């Protein structure tokens, strides 16, 4: 939690202060049963990650949702480091949107952090009729006390990249953040940088196209995005659309540097395995340049709190990579580790051509468990030394690309990080096997720490 000080709100004064925060002891993960053979609600799992604990690597609490087939996905906070100067704010509610049902659950994690409970549920109809939006994805708290959630579609399943505002006290839907008629064609993730009066959002695809799995024909038909959108943070007006072209197809997670004065960041593009750097030009507008290209499919990226390292997961190829980004325009690969994927050497795929000329990796076995699927969601410890990795992307795509993960459940692994010179290695003593859950194998997704982390906190 935040260090003791007079008049402090939630989070930390700066990203470098956050790096001095306490070691994580528990984490929260949404676990999904949609698209599996198990007819049970999705749930929020609390996992003990304290190596001194008797329940280390165990799920210590499960909070089932009251509905079926929600597809819990990415979570966020009611308050974070953007509210650090406001002592009246507390980081005590986890905002948990459902990607497919369009419900939003508000979870009380403050009363008993080890056993969260549902505080409130926002029904889909509120998003539909008040905002004309559906399929909520990314949540960020705002310095104003409100909560903002990006959405991917309209109520009919068409692409629509708009933003819902929730009241930070009542959690009622207030209104759209964007102006009428200015929603982007597609939506997904966003990050704002108030010192430069800017927000940048990304695009996945039309919900009705991706709901049943990935079809390359839908890319050609224009149902998937390939652009970044630049917004005026004060007026909420869309200023620019930066077309990334074919090489930038399906731009997903967008990460500004954590330094609130920075005018650049990175976005991972799934379809062609590329990372683009976006930056403010001397003229005052924004531009992009491709800085990394690897065998696809990049699905999650993050940046260490000191803005020194960039990490990404390569879900199909099966590896996690660490880049030194002190030279912002020329990332340098300093760490790589394979943990599953589709090109393992005892699988059905034979690699005929690899521009990196690497041998096909062996299956990853941790504590006797063969890792199903590939590395997907990432979360880095505050001090930058431990990288948590889960293997589920989205249940419809999991079922299509890794049916063994549907049968066996996903896992959470821990990667040890050399945060001095670079380097990654699997912690062989850490594994959370969601194939052994009481109601059957589950698909665990994004990791959150109770005190905040490097993908949810924004500094003003």
TrEMBL record:
Gene Ontology CC: one annotated term: cytosol
Superkingdom classification of source: Eukaryota
GO biological-process terms attached to the record: protein transport
UniProt-annotated location(s): Nucleus; Cytoplasm, Cytosol; Membrane
This protein's UniProt keywords: Acetylation, Cytoplasm, Membrane, Nucleus, Oxidoreductase, Protein transport, Selenium, Transport
One Pfam short name: SBP56
UniProt function note: Catalyzes the oxidation of methanethiol, an organosulfur compound known to be produced in substantial amounts by gut bacteria. Selenium-binding protein which may be involved in the sensing of reactive xenobiotics in the cytoplasm. May be involved in intra-Golgi protein transport.
Protein name in the entry: Methanethiol oxidase
